[in-house]
Automatic annotation (TrEMBL):
Name recorded for this polypeptide: Zinc finger SWIM domain-containing protein
Stretches assigned to the SWIM-type domain: 51-83
Keyword Nuclease: no
Alphabetized UniProt keyword annotations: Metal-binding, Zinc, Zinc-finger
Origin superkingdom: Archaea
Amino acid sequence: MKTTASPKAPLPVQTPNQLEERSRRARTEPMSVLPLGDGLYEVESASDHTYLVDLGAGRCTCPDHIFRSVRCKHIRRVAIEITDGRTPPPGQLAVECQNADCHESVFVAEDDDNGIATNDEESGQPVYCETHTLWPGDTVVDRETGDRLTVVDISDLRADAVRIDAADCTVAEYGTNSEYDSDVPVVGVVYPHATVRPNGVVPNSLRVYVFPRTRLEKRD
Ligand SMILES: [Zn+2]
Ligand SMILES: [Zn+2]
């Protein structure tokens, strides 16, 4: 069999201008990036098409990549957004801060170490942005009563694992707490003003109360 050589000719190369153009469009075109996990990202382009980018493999489902084998604007966009901190790197996912009206994205590890069930938004630990992460001394509002409270302790224990002895039930079961997820951590709070009577401070007004984290909203 006679083998043939490919035609002796220069291969088409991308001109620097074409390369620059893809880089430029990767930045300037409105695109959104949805991290799917496992290094996969769904990119919605300006024309509302969605393409799947496999960042590790450097692949995209768009025609530019499939037919021209170029590092298309979608792959570039994912890389740019990761560098800029707009999109989580492989191994992390983005979830929304759970504080009311806060739509800040928080990057969390993709594995289950932090208890985040990525395929079930109804379960797992609530996630908060830096602004809405609780610290002792923070003021929070009880969503049930509107009371302003001062945080004294943030626990790792779940609401269904902490008992309120006086009520003979768990924090999760106590009153309207049952409206909230039972697997969220509990937070210890005090009412900001102790009640002082002529015979002294009312002990109960200094008590630490525990609430499921999601019942409390951090306010500025
Ligand atoms: Zn592409
Ligand atoms: Zn927030």
